[in-house]
Specification:
alpha+beta, five-stranded antiparallel beta sheet
Length: 359
């Protein structure tokens, strides 16, 4: 019988067990790339991608857009300044600076109509900016302890916690846009709800329990805001607090410095607007409060229809067509080279050490 002393005296080893996996004896397969396998792949990709790209471009071209740059619109109540000049001198004036832009929609916009606002040269993808938020706050879990990521937008001058904290919330887009139809003699009905992702509103953003004003009374609003979070939508209390859809849309940061975000939906339940927007004269009125001159940015209002694939985006169609053409071109070049210069597969496979070498 083996004693305990003898067992303990057996030298330990770091050698892996003698298995196929640990000793790397598993069977392997290595593909042999030949003209017979590579060339058909290039041609199949090219033939498949080009029609897909043409289809994507077709659906993108079906989308109609009308874009107005209102960055330097002239003020109607603080003439002769532009609103950009006036708010640069006097931020948050009372009453707010307003401007009007008359335009003509060149044709009928049929179907669902969406209004977007667009910004340029605004880097929402900056690392510190993206992190500057407190997700626990946005879930309605209010606490006097604010995430360090929110600094320097975590507390106000009186050391009162800011809700919502962080640079993203502090820079919330604040211009108010409205549209007037000359043909109908009334404002175009715009809906403030249904613009955010349903998953964001249901999961990522929740209000604290109880009365909103009471729940937020111990906290300060962000520095750049003119309203408290429970007053963002004076017409609909269910669209206040962290459930405000303008806030939810803004908090989903953009990947590129030039971007657009959904602002409103045209209410097609109202008579005169059931089939879309008719071509004709309109007037865009802006309560101008969002400064962009400090970072050389521009602001736009975009009216857009949609297609089966969503909004206007020609890039994807162009990318498919370009990749398809490149694959076809490479396939043709390699095919010509193969026909003129290659040896047969049998010759390549049957090469042995005794095969004579020919220069």
């Amino acid at each position: 019988m083996t004693s305990i002393t003898e067992v303990n005296s057996i030298p330990k080893t770091k050698k892996p067990s003698d298995s196929a996996f640990k000793q790397q004896r598993l069977p392997a397969w290595q593909p042999i790339l030949t003209a017979g396998t590579v060339l058909p792949t290039f041609f199949v990709i090219g033939i498949a991608f080009i029609p897909v790209g043409i289809g994507l471009l077709y659906f993108s071209d079906q989308v109609k857009e009308y874009i107005i740059d209102y960055t330097n619109c002239n003020s109607t109540n603080y003439s002769p300044y532009t609103c950009a000049e006036y708010i640069a001198q006097k931020p948050n004036p009372t009453p707010p600076c307003t401007c009007e832009i008359k335009f003509t929609l060149p044709s009928h916009f049929n179907g669902m109509i969406y209004m977007y606002y667009g910004l340029t040269n605004f880097y929402q993808n900056h690392r510190r900016y993206v992190k500057s938020r407190d997700d626990n706050q946005l879930l309605g879990k209010l606490s006097n302890v604010v995430s360090n990521d929110c600094e320097p937008f975590a507390y106000d001058n009186t050391n009162k916690a800011i809700v919502p904290c962080g640079a993203i919330a502090n820079s919330l887009f604040s211009d108010e846009l409205s549209l007037y139809s000359v043909r109908h003699g009334s404002n175009v009905p715009l809906l403030k709800t249904g613009i955010a992702w349903p998953s964001d509103k249901a999961i990522k953003f929740r209000n604290p329990e109880g009365d909103l004003k009471e729940a937020f009374k111990e906290y300060s609003k962000p520095k750049n805001w003119t309203k408290n979070i429970y007053e963002l939508d004076p017409d609909d209390n269910s669209n206040n607090g962290f459930q405000n859809e303008d806030l939810i849309v803004w908090m989903r940061t953009a990947a590129l410095p030039t971007f657009r975000k959904l602002y409103r939906r045209v209410d097609h339940a109202v008579d005169g607007f059931k089939n879309g927007l008719l071509g004709g004269d309109y007037k865009l009125t802006i309560n101008y409060s969002y400064p962009v001159s400090a970072f050389d940015g521009k602001k736009r209002m975009i009216l857009s229809t949609t297609s089966l694939l969503g909004g206007k985006n020609p890039f994807l169609g162009i990318a498919y067509i370009v990749v398809g053409c490149i694959c076809l071109l490479l396939g043709l070049i390699l095919l010509i080279i193969h026909i003129k210069c290659s040896k047969s597969v049998t010759e390549m496979i049957n090469v042995t050490p005794n095969t004579p070498y020919h220069e």
